[in-house]
Amino acid sequence: MELGLWSIAIIVATFAVSFGFLKKAYERLGQQQLKSLPPGDMGWPLMGNTRSFLRAYKSQNPESFINNLKKRYGKTGIYKAHLFGKASIIVCSGELCRKVLTDDNNFQWGYPVSNVVGGDVPFDYMSSHRRLHRLLSTVLNQRHPPSSHLGTIEKIVINTLEEWSKMKEPILFVREVNKFVFKLIIAIFLGSGTDDTDIASMEEYYRKVYYGLHATPINIPGFAYHRAVQARKVLVNKIRGVLGERRERRCNDPNPNTGIIDFMAKADYEDGRPLNHEELVILLIGLFLAGRETTSRTAIWATIFLYNHPHLLHKAKEEQEEIVKRRPPSQKGLTFTEIKQMKYLSKVIDETLRLRTNVFSIFREAKNETYLNGYLIPQGWKVLVWTSAVHMDPEIYPNPNQFLPSRWDDFIPKAGAFLPFSTGSSTCPGADLAKLEISIFLHYFLLNYKLVQLNPGGPVNYFPSPDPADNCPAKIIKMR
């Protein structure tokens, strides 16, 4: 009996010692892993760092969020955090941003999946993203290069500016430019022939869908997300109707006016499978998102910045006047060669893209456990490529809060230091088209019109993207 009790005691003691040893070993392993994560903190339970992020981005100093991380943990260019309900790694140095965006083996598309865009259609956009990207790049830059759309863009710009100048009451400049760019997208991707009433209706419902992308996903009446889901259903039906009408016209018209979507509908994926009708609808919604936001926001802010800096406005206008003076009398309208001669205007556009970065971050996700700059990136964690922090880095761009197109004189930023259209395999395929649209808009605006803001210097809403808080009420005055 005594021998049995001693045996049990020895077994228990051995187990306790072994358990304690293993526990300490696991604790040391966990501590080592925690130490290998980037510096930072995970914030409050459940909320993480989202509250401090929103506080910064709802102020007039959004850079304070990243600057606080730098002050607390040093200028490592990489931090851990818990944002938007996910464990995240923030990357905010140019070199590290470039590494993430060009490493397709370890990082993938990481935006939250929302049925506001995809709905219930079983279309795996994430797995198809790279194939769609390659297809769009081919279409936008080879089959239908930006120069082929110059006449279409020019006509819409001229007509729109004339309409604005005839309005007796002030316009909301932000909303009107958004509508104008949406009309451009429809003309380029669907071709001419779409009724203006249909375009206006689609733009209205698209706007509700866009707001829902950044809302808490509560699908209950009264919430923005629910309104977005309902608006998407209407938008999808309207797009279906427009695509159906196009099919009928193509059958009855031997020379139909085609758009980019016609080529997309006929093109095969690498696996030989063409896009079906419902996938084309989702693709169009995605193109609305990609095509409208950057183009309209840059056109809006470039115009506002120039009119807030008269000496820069004079310089930009002078360049456009010189281009017109060199034009032969027989020439009507812009040429692509003239667009390429707009050197100063190109600097204005780049400076606007830097100062009013379209989104604060590009979302990626770690496909595998990997290391970046010596720090562990756990598999499945979000990786937020904080491009706005790079664009506002005073070590790259002195006096970053100032609008200085001259900073681009003989300045070529290092790889990763200027990312308005991302880089690597995720580079926006429509970047050149967007710049062309903005250049044509500014050319005619600067030559013939004047922006008179009712509330100049008003506050900016920085989340989800930087926009004038009051939508910039203004009069558009025709000068000649």
Automatic annotation (TrEMBL):
The chain crosses the membrane at residues 6-26. The keyword Transmembrane applies. GO terms for biological process: brassinosteroid biosynthetic process; brassinosteroid homeostasis; sterol metabolic process. GO terms for molecular function: ent-kaurenoic acid monooxygenase activity; heme binding; iron ion binding. It holds the Pfam family p450. Belongs to the cytochrome P450 family. GO terms for cellular component: endoplasmic reticulum. InterPro entries: Cyt_P450 (IPR001128), Cyt_P450_E_grp-I (IPR002401), Cyt_P450_sf (IPR036396). It comes from Gossypium stocksii. Heme binds at C428. The keyword DNA-binding does not apply. Keywords: Heme, Iron, Membrane, Metal-binding, Transmembrane, Transmembrane helix. It comes from the Eukaryota. This is Cytochrome P450. Its cofactor is heme.
